Prior knowledge:
By secondary structure, the chain is of the alpha/beta class. Helix content is 51%, strand content 18%. The protein folds into 2 domains: 1-31; 42-183, Rossmann fold, CATH 3.40.50.620. Helix 3 packs across helix 4 (100-118). The longest helix is centred in the N-terminal third of the chain and has 26 residues, at 5-30.
Amino acid sequence: MSPEPHTSVTGIVIAVGFAGAMGALMVWMFRVPRPVAAEVARARHALDAARLILVPTTGTAHSQRGVEFACRLAQEQGGEILLLYVIEVPRSLQLDMPLRQADEEARAALETASQVVAMHNLPVRAVVRRAREAGAGIIEAAKEHRADLIVLSIGPRKGAARGWGRTAEALLTRSPVEVIFNKMPE
Length: 186
């Protein structure tokens, strides 16, 4: 008994469709991407490697803008935000001495910054660190948590005309990772 004519035509159509789909898949799989300069490939890879972004925060408006900036970078990279508040302890006091007001300010600043990160649905960790100088505390945290990038926001009154400040200067000269300075205009 011979098959019905419409069954053979349906089988042929399916076979041709399957062969076409497989051919398109093979063309896509074996296509050679257009050449890119080595410098361009390295620059792309460097930014792709920024998975953990450390963001020092102080609770100020420009500091929150830095958190927002870091979140946008992290979203593109599939990264995580590490919020850091450094309590600068004077040399006349012990590092572990209770500083109730400073601890409250740190908690409030990290809570606000965490809310900014939550709006972006990104993983976030918040850390309070005590140090003699904020720059040294940021550098220690970057090493300890193996940060890939630091985003430091600078207020509108800081800059080349008035000096960068101790924290920015420390990061410029001693940071173990890439640093992005986010300076707000006046």
